[in-house]
């Protein structure tokens, strides 16, 4: 824009000055002015006057020569100023262009920024809308979660089961209403508290022990817990579960408890009913067998005298009827044992042929009553000795023959006995066939069912008790045999019994080597009975347990094969010396060995003075002394154990309160019966000890000092059986002071007992862990 504002001559002059410099340009301009002045003046005068006047021309030239420097100076100065102005304008123009460009760039950036701000503004609006929607959704979700939480809380609180949660420090972090009710405290009083601040001291050890087990094993644990609520004991099935995070770390414990008080009471009532039923059956059997044995014995004596045919027939009828009644008693007793899963088989070495002959004599008598023919068939070599239970097998055959006679009106009953050699070994096969009414096909499937009664010929009246065949099948199964039946209605039936034969050599008289003893154990403490039974069964003997003196006397009367009586001296009904005296009052039991079980051998020997007994064993039973007693009485020597004996080192004992335990007894039992069996016995003590404590408390509250003494005695024996020496000694103090000490002292002893049991069980757990 500036280039077009300057005239050409100015540009030329400026260019000349730039090219030649100011001085040369001034000289050129001065010369040019003189020349132009000369030419113009000459032309003026020539044109205007028509002639040239030299003077005038020179005057003009002179004037030009004089004025030109000034003009040139002004002109050059103007050019300089113009150049400066031009340069300034050019610089200003460039700056303006640069400023314009910068302005354009700024405007462009501003436009871009404005666009970006518009986009950001729109994005902000969108984000705000999204945020609003998210907030709304979160509020909705929170409301739903709050509603779900309230619903869950309502469900948890309305649950009849208790629930609680504790963190890994044992601090309560949550619970429901049922737990508050059981603890008798509100949630505000429970949450934030530790187990030590909540549970009573006698309950604390078990809680901590089970919590530690769950924490270490990371496995759920279910236990039965008795807890006092509003003055009465309520039982809960408590399930403790570990609370594990995503990394597998233990971060807390969940507890769920279901009230099983009614179930526990029902189980206890059922157990009591079972015991009562067993006592009733044993008592009934004893009371009925005594006169029945008299009938059988006198009938045998009568049949040995001179009788006419009719009298002998009557005598045979009395004898067979009494034997049949005895079989019914056996069925009833075995039914009770089947019901309690206590049906055992005691095998002896017997001659199979002699056994069959004994059965034939009985079968002939009962068949003769109904004027039926009785036939016996033998196949194979039967004059062999085998390990069989003669009492059980005789009971099976007599039941089948009785049934055959009962359902046969005319014809005959046949007994077939045969020995079959099979791949798995020899078998004894006994068949009882009859020509009676037979069994309809639809009844065959139920013939061995308990309490099933077959109808008579008219199909109306049921015959029999309904237990004989069921007991028979159970006995055959216990002997690892098989019983089957085939029948054709109106033609007769065939019952087949198959028993595996374990052949053996003929026994020598009074030899007990190679066979187990049949031992009656009289012990009122279940834990003591279990340990003694385990010790004896581990040595291959069969044990019959009686919990009272009356039961013991009944078993002595009814069990014909007893080899030994282990008799506890202190029983809940009658003392051991009275039981021993009554046994010895019958000459039939003169050769039956009796060994006393007692905590005080000297005291027992004084009580039994004048009564024939064969020894005394101190409780808890020492296995060495037990083996010595069996060796002295029966010549049975315990085989030497080749396995390494478990023993805890002195170093390991340093971390255990070993003074609370009877280390020698524990190691003796563990090495004799095995760690698993002994641990089961210790768990039984853990289960029974709360019951003993509750019974002690109940007897104390009711003022029944004798019951307090009796329970303390049982606890003393139970604790000694699992090596809890400190608990045993304390229970002994409680037993001896039960009658004379004050109620306050008895209550104080009971409070101390809980701590001693907890400490002893903890020490026992640690000790058994060292044996693993």
UniProtKB/TrEMBL annotation:
The keyword DNA-binding does not apply. The chain crosses the membrane at residues 25-47, 54-76. It is an enzyme of class 2 (transferase). GO terms for cellular component: plasma membrane. Signal peptide: none annotated. The keyword Lipid biosynthesis does not apply. This is Aerobic respiration control sensor protein. Its main location: membrane.
């Amino acid at each position: 824009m500036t280039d077009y504002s300057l005239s050409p001559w100015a540009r030329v002059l400026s260019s000349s000055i730039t090219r030649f410099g100011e001085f040369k340009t001034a000289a050129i301009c001065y010369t040019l002015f003189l020349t132009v002045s000369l030419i113009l003046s000459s032309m003026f005068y020539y044109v205007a006057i028509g002639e040239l006047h030299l003077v005038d021309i020179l005057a003009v030239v002179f004037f030009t020569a004089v004025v030109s420097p000034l003009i040139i100076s002004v002109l050059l100065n103007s050019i300089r100023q113009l150049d400066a102005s031009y340069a300034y304008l050019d610089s200003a123009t460039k700056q303006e262009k640069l400023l314009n460009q910068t302005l354009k760039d700024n405007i462009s950036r501003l436009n871009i920024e404005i666009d970006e701000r518009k986009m950001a503004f729109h994005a902000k609006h969108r984000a705000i809308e999204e945020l609003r929607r998210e907030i709304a959704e979160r509020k909705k979700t929170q409301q739903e979660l709050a509603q779900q939480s309230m619903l869950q809380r309502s469900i948890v609180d309305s649950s009849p089961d208790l629930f609680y949660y504790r963190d890994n420090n044992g601090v309560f972090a949550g619970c429901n209403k049922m737990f508050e009710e059981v603890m008798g405290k509100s949630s505000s009083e429970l949450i934030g508290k530790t187990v030590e601040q909540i549970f009573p001291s006698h309950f604390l050890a078990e809680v901590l022990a089970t919590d530690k087990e769950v924490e270490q094993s990371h496995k759920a644990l279910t236990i039965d817990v008795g807890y006092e609520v509003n003055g009465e004991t309520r039982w809960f099935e408590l399930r403790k579960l570990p609370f594990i995070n995503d990394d597998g770390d233990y971060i807390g414990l969940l507890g769920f408890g279901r009230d099983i008080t009614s179930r526990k009471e029902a189980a206890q009532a059922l157990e009591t009913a079972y015991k009562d039923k067993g006592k009733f059956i044993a008592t009934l059997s004893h009371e009925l067998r005594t006169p029945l044995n008299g009938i059988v014995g006198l009938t045998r004596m009568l049949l040995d005298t001179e009788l006419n045919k009719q009298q002998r027939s009557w005598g045979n009828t009395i004898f067979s009827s009494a034997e049949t009644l005895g079989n019914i008693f056996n069925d009833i007793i075995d039914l009770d044992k089947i019901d309690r899963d206590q049906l055992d088989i005691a095998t002896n070495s017997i001659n199979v042929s002699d056994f069959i002959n004994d059965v034939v004599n009985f079968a002939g008598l009962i068949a003769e009553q109904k004027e039926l023919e009785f036939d016996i068939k033998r196949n194979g070599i039967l004059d062999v000795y085998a390990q069989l239970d003669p009492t059980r097998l005789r009971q099976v055959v007599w039941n089948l023959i009785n049934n055959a006679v009962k359902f046969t009106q005319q014809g005959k009953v046949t007994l077939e006995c045969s020995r079959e050699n099979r791949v798995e070994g020899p078998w004894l096969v006994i068949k009882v066939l009859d020509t009676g009414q037979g069994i309809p096909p639809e009844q065959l499937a139920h013939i061995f069912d308990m309490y099933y009664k077959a109808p008579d010929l008219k199909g109306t009246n049921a015959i029999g008790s309904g237990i004989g065949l069921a007991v028979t099948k159970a006995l055959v199964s216990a002997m690892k045999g098989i019983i089957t039946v085939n029948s054709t209605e109106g033609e007769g039936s065939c019952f087949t019994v198959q028993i595996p034969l374990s052949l053996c050599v003929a026994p020598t008289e009074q030899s007990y080597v190679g066979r187990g003893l049949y031992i009656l154990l009289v012990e009122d403490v279940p834990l003591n009975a279990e340990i003694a039974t385990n010790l004896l069964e581990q040595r291959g003997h069969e044990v019959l347990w009686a919990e009272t003196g009356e039961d013991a006397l009944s078993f002595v009367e009814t069990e014909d094969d007893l080899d030994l009586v282990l008799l506890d001296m202190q029983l809940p009904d009658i003392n051991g010396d009275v039981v021993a005296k009554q046994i010895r009052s019958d000459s039939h039991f003169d050769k039956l060995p009796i060994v006393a079980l007692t905590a005080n051998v000297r005291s027992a020997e004084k009580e039994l003075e004048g009564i024939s007994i064969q020894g005394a064993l101190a409780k808890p039973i020492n296995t060495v002394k037990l083996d010595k007693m069996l060796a002295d009485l029966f010549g049975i020597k315990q085989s030497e154990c080749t396995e390494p004996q478990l023993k805890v080192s002195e170093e390991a004992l340093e971390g255990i309160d070993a003074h609370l335990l009877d280390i020698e007894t524990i190691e003796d039992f563990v090495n004799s019966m095995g760690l698993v069996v002994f641990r089961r016995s210790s768990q039984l003590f853990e289960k029974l000890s709360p019951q003993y404590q509750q019974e002690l408390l109940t007897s104390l509250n009711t003022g029944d000092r004798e019951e307090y003494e009796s329970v303390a005695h049982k606890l003393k024996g139970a604790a000694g059986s699992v090596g809890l020496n400190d608990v045993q000694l304390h229970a002994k103090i409680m037993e001896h002071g039960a009658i004379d000490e004050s109620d306050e002292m008895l209550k104080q002893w009971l409070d101390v007992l809980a701590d001693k049991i907890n400490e002893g069980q903890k020490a026992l757990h640690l000790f058994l862990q060292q044996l693993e």
